[in-house]
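hiii, so i know i said id send this last week but things got crazy w the move. better late than never?? heres the sequnce for the chain we talked about at the cafe, plus the structure i predicted for it. fair warning i was half asleep when i ran it
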Amino acid sequence: MDVLIDKCAYYAYNHPDLKTDYQRLFADLYDRRHREMINVLTDQSENEMKKELKKAKEEIGKISLDETQNWNDYVDTELSRRQRKLIKEFQKVNFKDYPRVHHVRKRAKTLRYSATYFAGFDPKRAKKSKKIAESVQDICGNITAAHVNQKMLADFAKQTDDAQERSLLMSISNFQNEILSSRVKKEK
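okay and structure toks below
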């Protein structure tokens, strides 16, 4: 929802001439966001999260690191391997296959964080990996966000009884679709 609200704000900023009730639209979007947050943050989900964190802590306690390992070489090898794999996946991805685009984005995010946190072992390799990962993550993130936002806006438009709000939601949805179409063409 936060990305959708941000994209709607971008649209509103770039289309101030429209005689629309942006204030009402944003009030509705923030209300939907609030309801979703209440549903997500339940006592049950909090308890499940605590259990999973406890398991993770136990597993981390079992790790035994070999002190004779050359960590600089290991980090260089691992970042190189993950970078090659990401580039290969990115080059093959069909940008209309949104679940796959999202998967590639998550891989890029993982590489970016790895490069950030392990930069002390191999700063040159980490900088290169991080730069590539950020680029892939941005491209895939924009495509995924436009796809999700377009669908959500169209769904919201179907749910409203207000003709003016429906028209505004569909205008923003169509704008997201244009972004999506131009981005997919640009990346191919």
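btw The chain has seven helices and no strands. thought thatd interest u
miss u guys!!
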